[in-house]
Amino acid sequence: MIEVSTSILNVKKGEEADTFFKLEASKTDYFHIDVMDGKFVKNNTYKKMLEYSTYIKRISNLPLDVHLMVKDVKNSIEEFSSVEPNIITFHLEACKSKQEVYEYISLIKENNCRVGIAIKPNTKIEEVYEFLPYIHMCLIMTVEPGKGGQEFLHEMTKKIKQLKQYINENNLEIDIEVDGGINLNTHEEVKKAGANVIVAGTAILMAKDYKVIIDELKKN
Ligand code: DX5
Ligand code: ZN
User: Fold this and answer.
1) Is there an atom of ligand 1 within 6 Å of 86 CB?
2) Which of 6, 8, 9 has most ligand 1 atoms within 8 Å of CB, for mutation?
3) In which element (H, E) is residue 167 found?
4) Nearest to residue 216, comparing CAs of 18, 19, 203?
């Protein structure tokens, strides 16, 4: 079953409430919360994403899919756990050691939250293998993290296939999320490769009718 996680990074100022209601009515499965600290990536959305998450928790029961693009993973896990997300995903590249990766996995679980690990385009998929038995989702970035509206990197499709094959061969139960440049032209390619959670920002928020796009992205 394919799920859609709408990135609210570029929701128009002043139209937030209306947009969140419309997205819920259009049956997005998650709100994708892009947390950027201005250090791991140039942009800083930290405060805005915390505000949006807090607000969404008040008006909607839809789950939050928090994507941490931050250097201080520990502190961000603690801060964003306060909005009781469904899943918190941190970047492997923000971890200084394997021991730190396991520490963050435990910290997220202690907060009754599911765990995701994200990898940037240049990170080899093999680097995440050892952690897979302990997490719920692997996020394969299909653009360089840091902003919305970028072009999909087609060379990432091979990486999705490789991960899907490893998951099948090792009888693991893990979601594969893809994030960046996913739209009506690229969604079939990533689903065929094995992705089952689709993040989209621009493709949905720029559409006249969110539901038309979300329904299309959900098709198997
Ligand atoms: C990029 C973010 C993505 C991005 C998706 O760093 O992690 O979630 O906002 O936006 P689109 O779908 O416009 O590429
Ligand atoms: Zn994201």
Assistant:
1) no
2) 9
3) helix 156-169
4) 203
Q: Which two tokens stand for residue 44?
A: 């800083």
Name all domains of the chain by residue range, CATH numbers in brackets: 3-218 (3.20.20.70)
Q: pTM (2 decimals)?
A: 0.98
Q: Which two tokens stand for residue 121?
A: 């385009």
Compute, in angstroms, the gap from residue 141 CA to the centroid of ligand 1. 9
Give residue 10's pLDDT.
97
What is the tens place of the pLDDT at every residue in 44-101?
999 999 999 999 999 999 999 999 999 999 999 999 999 999 999 999 999 999 999 9
**Long-range contacts of residues 204-207, Cβ cutoff 8 Å, at least 24 apart:** 204/4, 204/6, 204/23, 204/26, 204/28, 205/6, 205/10, 205/11, 205/12, 205/19
AA identity, residue 44: N
Amino acid, res. 84: E
- The per-residue DSSP string of 26-88 comes to TT-SEEEEEEEBSSSSS-B-HHHHHHHHHHHHHH--PPEEEEEE-S-HHHHHHHHHTT--SEE
Tell me which residue has its CA closest to atom 3 in ligand 1. Answer: 180
Centre of ligand 1 to C-alpha 201, Å, is: 6
Residue 46: both structure tokens together: 């930290």
